[in-house]
Write a structure and sequence with these properties.
343 residues, alpha+beta, Nucleotidyltransferase, domain 5, 2 domains, 7-stranded mixed beta sheet, 5-stranded antiparallel beta sheet, 8 helices, 24% strand, binds zinc ion
Length: 343
C-alpha cells in the first residue's frame, strides 16, 4: 500500500489571475509573444489540509494591479471580466503587488491553479519586469485532478462545470480573480476528499489511482523537449524520421525507458516513457507541411501528470483492442493502419 500519511498537514495556495491583452489592430508596446497577457488582478485562497477529511479555507487575498504595457482594455477581455480602460488606472505596479502576494503565501505550500495558463502568464510578467521567473517549486493543476477523481476522465472541464458538479453554492459571478480562486479552492477541497475516498477503496492500485504527488510538479524545470525532422516529400517518411529520435529526460538528460512504444491515434503519434527519477513523460508526433508542400515531423516530449499519462494508456488500450478486432475480421482492409509501431 502507498503510504500517504506524510501528506498532512499540507497547505495549498490556489491562485487565479485576470490579465489584459494587446489590441489586435493597434501597434503593441511589447511583442505579444513575450507578453501574451498583462496581469491586472491577483486573487488567492489558502486551503489547509489537516487530514483526509479536515480542511480549513482562508479569507481570499485580492489585489488590483495597474498595467504598464496594455493600458487600453481589450474588448474581448472586457466582455469576460467586465472592466474598462478607466479601471486599469487603479491598483499598484506589478512588482509590489507580486511581493505582497508572495508574503501572503508564506512558506512551504503547494501552489495551485486551474489549468496551466496562469503559471505561464505569471512567468512572462515576472520576466518583463526583470524579476526572477522562478516560482514556488511545487505546483498542482487542479483541472486534471478534478477530471480524474470526479469523472474518471481526461477531458478538460471549466471551473463553472466543476462548481456545478460538486453543487458548490454559487453566490458570486465568475471572472474576478478572488472569487474564481475561492471556487477553485472549493473544487480542490472536494477533489481531495474524493481522491482519498477512492484511494481508500483501491489501496493497492497505483496504476488506476496514481499518488497525489504525481499531480504535483516543479514549474521551474524544463519539462519538455521539442524536435523536428528534415523535410520529406511524403508524410510517412517525415513521421518515420521523427520516430527515430533517441529520447532523454528533458529534466535530467537520463535515457528514458519505453512504457508504451509509439503508436498512431488518428493523425497523431503517441508514446509513454519513464525516467527513473522523474517518472512519466509523454511523447507526441505530428506531420506538418512546409510552404513548399513537403512534410516534416514535429515531436514533443513532456513531463506529464497522472491524468495525462492515463489518457495515453487509454488510447493505447483502444488501439490494441482495435487491432485484435481487426485480426478477428480479416475482410477489413488494414492497409492504412500499417504504421510505425514496429519501429
Ligand atoms: Zn529525469
Amino acid at each position: 500500500m502507498i503510504r500517504e500519511d506524510n501528506l498532512f498537514p499540507m497547505t495549498f495556495v490556489v491562485f487565479d489571475m485576470e490579465w489584459n491583452q494587446p489590441i489586435p489592430y493597434m501597434p503593441s508596446p511589447v511583442d505579444p509573444k513575450i507578453l501574451p497577457g498583462e496581469i491586472i488582478e491577483i486573487g488567492a485562497v489558502k486551503l489547509q489540509m489537516l487530514s483526509e477529511k479536515d480542511y480549513v479555507l482562508s479569507r481570499p487575498f485580492s489585489i488590483t494591479v495597474r498595467p504598464q504595457y496594455y493600458r487600453i482594455m481589450n474588448r474581448q477581455v472586457s466582455r469576460v471580466i467586465n472592466k474598462s480602460t478607466d479601471d486599469l488606472k487603479c491598483g499598484m505596479p506589478f512588482p509590489e503587488a507580486y511581493s505582497l502576494f508572495q508574503e501572503w503565501c508564506g512558506e512551504d505550500y503547494v501552489l495551485c491553479a486551474w489549468g496551466d495558463s496562469d503559471i505561464s502568464i505569471l512567468k512572462s510578467n515576472l520576466k518583463i519586469h526583470g524579476l526572477t521567473s522562478e516560482i514556488n517549486e511545487r505546483f498542482l493543476d487542479i483541472q486534471p485532478l478534478f477530471g480524474r477523481v470526479a469523472e474518471n476522465t481526461s477531458q478538460q472541464r471549466s471551473v463553472a462545470y466543476a462548481v456545478d458538479f460538486y453543487k458548490i453554492p454559487q453566490t458570486d459571478d465568475f471572472h474576478s480573480a478572488d472569487k474564481d480562486a475561492w471556487y477553485e479552492t472549493r473544487i480542490l477541497q472536494e477533489s481531495l476528499i474524493d481522491y482519498f475516498s477512492i484511494k481508500e477503496k483501491n489501496p493497492d492500485d497505483e496504476q488506476a489511482f496514481p499518488s497525489l504527488r504525481t499531480y504535483i510538479s516543479n514549474p521551474n524545470l524544463t519539462t519538455q523537449k521539442k524536435w523536428r525532422s528534415e523535410a520529406f516529400p511524403s508524410e510517412k517518411d517525415a513521421i518515420r524520421a521523427t520516430l527515430g529520435e533517441i529520447l532523454c529526460c528533458p529534466i535530467c538528460d537520463e535515457k528514458l525507458q519505453t512504457e508504451i512504444p509509439w503508436f498512431s491515434s488518428g493523425r497523431t503519434y503517441l508514446s509513454l516513457w519513464q525516467c527513473p527519477q522523474h517518472s512519466t513523460m509523454s511523447g507526441k508526433i505530428r506531420a506538418k507541411k512546409t510552404p513548399k508542400q513537403e512534410f516534416y515531423g514535429s515531436g514533443q516530449l513532456r513531463f506529464v501528470n497522472g491524468n495525462a499519462a492515463r489518457y495515453v494508456r487509454e488510447k493505447w488500450q483502444e488501439k490494441v483492442e482495435g487491432v485484435k478486432k481487426e485480426a478477428e475480421s480479416p475482410e477489413i482492409d488494414s492497409e492504412n493502419e500499417t504504421k510505425c509501431e514496429q519501429m
